[in-house]
């Protein structure tokens, strides 16, 4: 998807929610939008320092916290990385296919998997408030 279109969409979401899309938040958003897979916070920091020489780890972590809170990004827990969500205009369950060879991450949205997990959890008296399912393997390009 076009980065400028994503930025415009993110600004609109921020306006609608009364949140500030500061220049630093926008720069981190753009860095994530330019990536295919997940990226670590310190890699983002190194890229950010190219234009913001005074950027510190806290700068990036605050921006990532903001972006996650608004649903703009997903944290890939198993690799401690972050990726842009292209469907941030609505709340949705997430399944991630993570290639262990090249690092590509594909985002899926299976309502069936989500429903099944919620139903199994409810049988045990558990209420799911959010779900991200991560599956590791090899993408089509790397499986040979």
Reconstruct the topology from this structure:
Blueprint: H1 3-17, H2 23-33, H3 41-48, H4 57-69, E1 73-76, E2 81-84, E3 94-99, E4 105-108, H5 111-123, E5 132-137
Parallel strand pairs: 3-5
Antiparallel strand pairs: 1-2, 3-4
Q: What share of the residues lie within helices?
A: 40-55%
Main CATH class of the largest domain: Mainly Alpha
Work out the strand percent: 15-25%
Q: Please name the CATH architecture of the largest domain.
A: Orthogonal Bundle
Count up the helices.
5
Question: Biggest sheet: strands, sense, closure?
Answer: 3 strands, mixed
As a whole number of angstroms, the C-alpha radius of gyration is 16 Å
Q: What is the β-strand count?
A: 5
Mean pLDDT score, rounded?
92
CATH topology call of the largest domain: Arc Repressor Mutant, subunit A
Number of domains: 2
N-to-C terminal Cα separation, in Å?
A: 28 Å
CATH homologous group name of the largest domain = Winged helix-like DNA-binding domain superfamily/Winged helix DNA-binding domain
């Amino acid at each position: 998807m076009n980065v400028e279109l994503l930025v415009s969409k993110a600004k609109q979401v921020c306006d609608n929610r009364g949140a500030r899309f500061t220049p630093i938040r926008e720069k981190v958003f753009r860095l994530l939008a330019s990536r295919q897979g997940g990226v670590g916070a310190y890699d983002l920091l190194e890229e950010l320092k190219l234009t913001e020489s005074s950027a510190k780890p806290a700068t990036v972590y605050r921006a990532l916290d903001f972006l996650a809170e608004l649903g703009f990004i997903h944290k890939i827990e198993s690799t401690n990385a972050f990726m842009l969500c292209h469907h941030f205009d609505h709340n949705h369950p997430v399944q991630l296919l993570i290639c262990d060879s090249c690092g590509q991450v594909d985002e899926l949205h299976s309502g069936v998997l989500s429903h099944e997990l919620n139903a199994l959890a409810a049988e045990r008296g558990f209420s799911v408030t959010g779900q991200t399912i991560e599956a590791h393997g090899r993408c089509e390009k790397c499986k040979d």
